[in-house]
From TrEMBL:
<feature type="transmembrane region" description="Helical">
    <location>
        <begin position="65"/>
        <end position="85"/>
    </location>
</feature>
<keyword id="KW-0472">Membrane</keyword>
<keyword id="KW-1133">Transmembrane helix</keyword>
<feature type="transmembrane region" description="Helical">
    <location>
        <begin position="33"/>
        <end position="53"/>
    </location>
</feature>
<protein>
    <recommendedName>
        <fullName>Leptin receptor overlapping transcript-like 1</fullName>
    </recommendedName>
</protein>
<feature type="transmembrane region" description="Helical">
    <location>
        <begin position="91"/>
        <end position="117"/>
    </location>
</feature>
<dbReference type="GO" id="GO:0005768">
    <property type="term" value="C:endosome"/>
</dbReference>
<dbReference type="GO" id="GO:0032511">
    <property type="term" value="P:late endosome to vacuole transport via multivesicular body sorting pathway"/>
</dbReference>
<comment type="similarity">
    <text>Belongs to the OB-RGRP/VPS55 family.</text>
</comment>
<keyword id="KW-0812">Transmembrane</keyword>
<dbReference type="Pfam" id="PF04133">
    <property type="entry name" value="Vps55"/>
</dbReference>
<dbReference type="GO" id="GO:0060400">
    <property type="term" value="P:negative regulation of growth hormone receptor signaling pathway"/>
</dbReference>
<dbReference type="GO" id="GO:0016020">
    <property type="term" value="C:membrane"/>
</dbReference>
<comment type="function">
    <text>Negatively regulates growth hormone (GH) receptor cell surface expression in liver. May play a role in liver resistance to GH during periods of reduced nutrient availability.</text>
</comment>
<dbReference type="InterPro" id="IPR007262">
    <property type="entry name" value="Vps55/LEPROT"/>
</dbReference>
<feature type="transmembrane region" description="Helical">
    <location>
        <begin position="7"/>
        <end position="27"/>
    </location>
</feature>
Length: 128
């Protein structure tokens, strides 16, 4: 039960950093909210590959590796977009730093969720 509490606290802290990067009167630019799409899209390829692939084979397969590749592309894009916004003077560098801190916390929370609930036991997220 404490694990779920820690994961939800991590998600709230990450979203707080994202909102601070957008809504502080010094920055006042809401373009970083496009990162919410990356937060939603990041776990989808891995979830689909877990449903399609049978885990009885210990060897790596192409579907799982494609899912990891797509997830990595989404995560790298989520870190690159704020830097591009800051370089194009769409948002300030301070807002970029807050958004990048939020990215670190959010993606660490997503990773923690899959590490804790990713196994195929009775306490798995796949039964939900």
């Amino acid at each position: 039960m404490a694990i779920i509490l820690h994961l939800s606290f991590g998600g709230a802290i990450g979203l707080m950093f994202l909102m601070l990067g957008c809504a502080l009167p010094v920055y006042n630019a809401y373009w970083p909210l496009f990162l919410l799409f990356f937060y939603i899209l990041a776990p989808i390829p891995y979830c689909i590959s877990r449903r399609v692939v049978d885990d009885t084979d210990s060897a790596s397969n192409a579907c799982k590796e494609l899912a990891i590749f797509l997830t990595t592309g989404i995560v790298v894009s989520a870190f690159g977009l704020p830097v591009i916004f800051a370089r194009a003077h769409v948002m300030a560098w301070g807002a970029c730093a807050l958004v990048l801190a939020g990215n670190i916390v959010i993606f660490a929370t997503i990773l923690g969720f899959f590490l804790v609930f990713g196994s195929n036991d009775d306490f798995s997220w796949q039964q939900w």
